[in-house]
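Section 3.1: Structural characterization of target chains.
Under the original work plan, the team committed to producing a structural model for every single-chain target entering the pipeline before any wet-lab resources were allocated. The record below documents one such target. The sequence was received from the expression subgroup and is listed exactly as submitted; it comprises 207 residues.
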Amino acid sequence: MKRIIIFCLLIGFVSACKTVDYEWENFKYAPTPKVTLDVESSALPTFASAKVSFFNLARPDYATAQTFKWTLDYYDAQGRAGVEAIEVYVGFNRREGVPPVYPIVLSLAQVHPTERQFPLPSVIRANDRLVERVTEFPKSFSFTPSELAALTSTNLSTVAVNDYFLFKFIVIMEDGTRIVQYNDNSCDESRGELCDCRVGVRFKNIP
């Protein structure tokens, strides 16, 4: 009994000595975007966990005959964080200096890709266009290369291998909070994270 009393007094003493309030102590639960990729619509083999689809430039009618399909939803921390809407943006990007390898290589667990498929962070930039403000979930999307080119004012005749269209999201919580960016590690598909802050489609040229 004495030990319990001493322990309680010690805890009270430590609490009374606290002089600094930290921002992280006032946390609140936040929803995160969730993307389900339709792997069957990809022109080349892919994996749902990679969050990347492909258009194949080798096909003469690729601009209208191929589609990029995916569904948008959200994780809500077991009902503790509501979503009012998710704003969906899209932009066209030229290939990186070192694009990810193809075919996609999975980790030793054979679940997630060994490297992320698009650059981080996924910040909304000047060339990104608002596609839709989604308020009912899940929401399915389907685009041909021509449709994406029209949305982003892109000339398909200038597209090269490993260029890509990338969709990004801004989550608007029920209290009006706008989440415009998540921690990079939270969005890294190679780590198997639950936050899908982007999804995209790359151009390849494979006969």
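Confidence is low (pLDDT under 50) at residues 4-11.
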